């Protein structure tokens, strides 16, 4: 098998220019109260303020903009339970092309509403990976649309890496960066960029203990698929991607776990102290940091707050 060619720092800089008109350069916030609790200096990169309310806007826009005119005309398709679905629908809408989105019937209403709002055509399926994949296959066959995977796709990873690029341009002294990990697009992109930027920066993944396939895969040195995940962090239910695993294995220091109760406490802390809306998946890195304070003591730490698409009627506190 040919070794994958990962994006270089230059490629990621080009991606940032390519998607500039599609996205926000998100702010970085701090909280002295949270710093005191954590025993370190934390900088939060607020992708909950991103277009579509999540970092996924970056990868989707980059993938759409890299398509040929011929492929653009046939549209794009994907399967996603949430943020990637909305991100791809929006990128397609801006590019003036169709978007076909396969979504499990159990996907949060707020996420379905967002996809429809961006002009995406939703095709519902049973809430399991096999149903998602077979339904998508049918859609691609019927429409000729290009499949844009949610995370295990080089153009998507390259787009997600622009988040860490902005982060380190604005806070070049960061010693550690934490990102949540589901499929691994954000963590993979973050690890890739950080390594290219400065090999001394440590990158950690953070994962719910009820959906810990990335943690187990990392420890085993091979991909162990996700089975029956059970966590409040609905954005981190998916299995780790093959390309992302390769990047994570090379450039990520470790993957840390957080229980749902730790995640809920961290989520509440951010709501109370920072006055911002985040989704549960977003709170996992802070929860993991607070569960492993000794690792971060006195360090300058960056946390990527991945998204803010939460059903406010179902807040866990």
From TrEMBL:
GO molecular function: ATP binding; D-serine ammonia-lyase activity; L-serine ammonia-lyase activity; magnesium ion binding; pyridoxal phosphate binding; serine racemase activity; threonine racemase activity
Domain Tryptophan synthase beta chain-like PALP: 21-307
Protease listed as a keyword: no
GO biological process, one term: D-serine biosynthetic process
InterPro entries associated with the record: Ser/Thr_deHydtase_PyrdxlP-BS (IPR000634), TrpB-like_PALP (IPR001926), TrpB-like_PALP_sf (IPR036052)
Gene3D superfamilies noted in UniProt: 3.40.50.1100
UniProt keywords, alphabetically: Lyase, Magnesium, Pyridoxal phosphate
SUPFAM superfamilies registered for this protein in UniProt: Tryptophan synthase beta subunit-like PLP-dependent enzymes
Cofactor: Ca(2+); pyridoxal 5'-phosphate; Mn(2+); Mg(2+)
Family: Belongs to the serine/threonine dehydratase family.
Protein name per UniProt: Pyridoxal-phosphate dependent enzyme
Source species: Algoriphagus formosus
Phylogenetic classification of the source organism: Bacteria, Pseudomonadati, Bacteroidota, Cytophagia, Cytophagales
């Amino acid at each position: 098998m040919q070794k994958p060619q990962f994006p270089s720092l230059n490629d990621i800089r080009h991606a940032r220019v390519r998607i500039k008109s599609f996205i926000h350069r998100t702010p970085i916030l701090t909280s002295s109260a949270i710093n005191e609790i954590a025993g370190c200096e934390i900088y939060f990169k607020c992708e909950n303020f991103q277009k579509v309310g999540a970092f996924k806007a970056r990868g989707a826009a980059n993938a759409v903009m890299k398509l040929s005119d011929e492929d653009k005309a046939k549209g794009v398709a994907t399967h996603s339970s949430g943020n990637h679905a909305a991100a791809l629908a929006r990128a397609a809408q801006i590019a003036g092309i169709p978007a076909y989105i396969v979504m499990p019937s159990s996907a949060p209403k707020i996420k379905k509403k967002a996809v429809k709002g961006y002009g995406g055509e939703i095709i519902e399926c049973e809430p399991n990976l096999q149903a998602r994949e077979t339904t998508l296959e049918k859609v691609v066959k019927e429409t000729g649309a290009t499949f844009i995977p949610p995370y295990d796709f080089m153009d998507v990873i390259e787009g997600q890496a622009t988040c860490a690029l902005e982060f380190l341009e604005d806070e070049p002294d960061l010693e550690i960066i934490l990102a949540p990990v589901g499929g691994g697009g954000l963590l993979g992109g973050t690890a890739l960029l950080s390594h290219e930027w400065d090999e001394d920066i440590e990158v950690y993944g953070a994962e719910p203990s009820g959906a810990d396939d990335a943690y187990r895969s990392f420890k085993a040195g091979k991909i162990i698929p996700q089975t029956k995940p059970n966590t409040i962090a609905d954005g981190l239910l998916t299995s780790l991607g093959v390309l992302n695993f390769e990047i994570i294995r090379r450039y990520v220091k470790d993957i840390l776990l957080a229980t749902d109760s730790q995640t809920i406490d961290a989520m509440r802390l951010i709501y109370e102290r920072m006055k911002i809306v985040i989704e549960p998946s977003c709170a996992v890195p802070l929860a993991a940091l607070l569960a492993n304070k000794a690792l971060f003591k006195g360090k300058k730490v960056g946390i990527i707050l991945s998204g803010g698409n939460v059903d406010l009627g179902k807040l866990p506190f």
